[in-house]
Amino acid sequence: MLFTIPDLLSPSEVIALCNRLQKIPLVDGKSTAGWHAKTVKQNQQLDAKQAEPLGKEVRSHLMAHPLFQAAARPKQIQSVRFNRYSDGMTYGRHTDNALMNGARTDISFTLFLSDPDSYEGGELVVEGVDSEQGYKLPAGSVLVYPSTSLHRVDPVTSGVRWAAIGWVQSQVRQAQQREILFELDTARRSLFSQYGKTDEFDLITKSLSNLLRQWVE
After folding, report:
1. Residue 162 in contact with residue 83, Cβ under 8 Å?
2. Under a CB-based contact definition with an 8 Å cutoff, are residues 113 and 17 in contact?
3. Which residue stretches of the chain are H helix?
4. Where are the domains positioned within the chain?
5. Domain 3-170 adopts which CATH fold?
6. What is the spatial distance between Cα 133 and Cα 127, in angstroms, rounded to a whole number?
7. Cβ(145)–Cβ(109) under 8 Å?
8. pLDDT at 101
9. How does pLDDT run along the chain (217 residues), one tens digit per residue?
10. Which among 12, 42, 72, 142 could disulfide-bond with 5, CB atoms 3.0 to 4.6 Å apart, if both were Cys?
């Protein structure tokens, strides 16, 4: 399941975060790429150790967001990385590693930190079975997408593109199961908002809870 979270960070929070990341040294993005991804990765990223406090803040915002909780069922969020793309930089077609720091990656996310009008190019393109879609979201917004997908960052032709990326191990391994749980949770919340705690609400809640018992690892 692919979805967006608008305004995970407010404009003032984006500005504060960007001011802080400007003070952290940059390293070659190839340093954290797999042996095959190194051939298509051309960007810079913040020194991971010094950027950890910023990554902790991003994780905290995501874990507190109700849509992220309902759709991703996160068990843990792996280390957050902050990437910088300037003229000519790109990250070619690739799939994210199945394991990060020994944990399974089920879901990937990109938090856009640059105003889309401040740079040209740099779309995050996610491939489907027979199509692809490019994304260039407002600063502070997040795209959440399957780690199993092929994706790329198109070359930046002018300006600078900053983004934070990370990976999630879900409590529910199968994407189809996560989608069923999300739809049931959405339906019961809609029923509750319209009619309160009805028999139908109780039955959907029972089914949701019992499916969670079967599927959560």
Report:
1. yes
2. yes
3. 11-21, 48-63, 66-72, 175-195, 199-215
4. 3-170, 175-215
5. Jelly Rolls (2.60.120)
6. 7
7. yes
8. 87
9. 999 999 999 999 999 999 999 999 999 999 888 788 889 999 999 999 999 999 999 999 999 999 999 999 999 998 899 999 999 999 999 999 999 889 999 999 999 999 999 999 999 999 988 899 999 999 999 999 999 999 999 999 999 999 999 999 999 999 999 999 999 999 999 999 999 999 999 999 999 999 999 999 9
10. 142
Residues 31 and 195: their CA atoms lie apart, in Å, by: 54
**The one-letter amino acid at 97:** N
Write the burial class of residue 210 (CB in 10 Å: 0-12 exposed, 13-18 middle, 19+ buried): exposed
Pair of tokens at residue 32: 């954290």
In eight-state DSSP terms, residue 91 is: E
Q: What is the pTM of this model?
A: 0.95
Give 178's DSSP letter. H
The first and second tokens of residue 33, run together, are 């790429």
Determine how β-strand 90-94 pairs with β-strand 151-153: antiparallel
**Predicted local confidence at residue 34, as pLDDT:** 79
Half-sphere exposure (CA, 13 Å, Cβ side) for 207?
A: 14
Query: Percentages helix, strand, coil for the chain, rounded to the nearest 5?
Result: 40, 30, 30
What is the distance between the alpha carbons of residues 212 and 5, in angstroms, rounded to a whole number?
24
